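Reagents: none. Just compute today. Endo-1,4-beta-xylanase Z.
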Amino acid sequence: MSLTGTPLFATVVALTVIAVVLPLAVWSKVRGPAAARLAVRGTMVLFAQTTAVALVFVAINRDMNFYASWGDLFGTGKYVTAAPDLGADGLGGKKAEEVKAEPKVRQKFEPVEGLGGRVQKTELDGRISGVKGDVMVWLPPQYDEPAYKDKKFPVVELIPGIPGTGKSWFQGLKAHEVLEPLMKQGKVQPFILVSPRAMLLGNADTGCANLPGKVNADSWFSVDVRKMVTDNFRASDEARTWGVAGYSAGAYCAAKLAVLHPDRYSAAVSLSGYNDPGQEPSSLVAKDPELRRTHNLKELLKAQPAPPAVALWMSGAEQDGYLSGMDLKGLAQNPTTVHAEKVTGGHNLESWSKQIPQTFDWLSKTVKAP
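Predicted 3D structure written out:
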């Protein structure tokens, strides 16, 4: 029974109704010694409380899609098939031109239930990263119009927080519903949106890092997913045509990928992000003090051989992304640019969804059309 499916939701609703009705019907009819009556009544109360909590969890998860499966919930999903040391650039000794020249892999896509036909899903077997997982893709309304049949489109890669799935950007933040009318009105570029699986090792946060022997999350996002998009859709692999955006732990990832790979991304949007990976309790990177230090965005920016030609948008409340942005802004040297935006609304999907028009207006001016 699917964790997000209707059968489970209907079952939990039915059990909750029973848990409420049952005590009303039999409470005064319970017989036996006082201890037995207390035990029966206590069990009914516990059952009612448990089903109520389960109903709230299932309902919220269906709406926000924090966990896509039972494997995600219990941390038993298997998405890493290999994790070799791929080197500093995450290409495993290959040159970018060699990766680009590899035979195209045509993926099979299917519509995603509950999100309309324009959101599609595929299962991607990452040849470089050793990660195998689902990727959501949304095509802009112009993609199938005759006037655009020979045109390529810019791309924004969307990374969810932890917990979260590729579906979270569409079902939770409703990014496609917010952006489609803006694209039709010409207020936002017609971006291809692609949102890959981010939970790759149980419920742990990979920090979008390549960790030999554990996971190559960086290469999953910045190499395999990018190549899948250019293999299957009218998109360029030029960095100037790619942006990356994330919220919470995904915000840290977005900024990190842009800083590390200006040859793959030209811009990043960080919504309620942070510089120190230790701010995410489940961070694998933060478990090692030295990795935590070297993967701090401030250290990564300073460690680059030359200031990366990327633009960063970092927004959030003062202690929830804004000051992190100001710290990076203070370190940035041309051609790196950092825009820090203080916002209100809290650390939640509603707040991030409200920022989509403004941030994608910025991306439209920063990421170039092919």
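The chain has a mean pLDDT of 92.
Action item: order primers for follow-up constructs.
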